[in-house]
Amino acid sequence: MENTKIYKRLIMVFALIIATFYVVYQFASSVLGVPISTESAISYTAYNMIETQGFAVRDESIIYSDKSGVAVNAVEDGTKVAATTVVKRLFASAAAAQAYQELQAVNEDIEYYETIYRQQQTHNIDKTTNDNNLKSTYYDILNAVETNDFSLVSSKVKDMGLYITRRQLLTGESFDLEQTISALKARKQTLTEQAGAVTVTSGKVGYYTGEVDGYENVFSYDRIGNITMEQINSAINSKPSAIENSAVGKINESFTWYFLCVVDTAAINSVSTGDMIEVNMPFEDIASFKMKIHSITNADAEHCVLVLESTLMNEKIANFRIETLQLRLEKYSGIRIRSQALRTNEDGETGVYVLVGNLVRFRKTECIYVQGDYMIVEGSALGNDSTLEVHDSVIYEGKNLYDGRVL
Question: Any alpha helices (H) in 147-217, and if so which ranges?
Answer without folding.
Answer: 150-170, 177-194
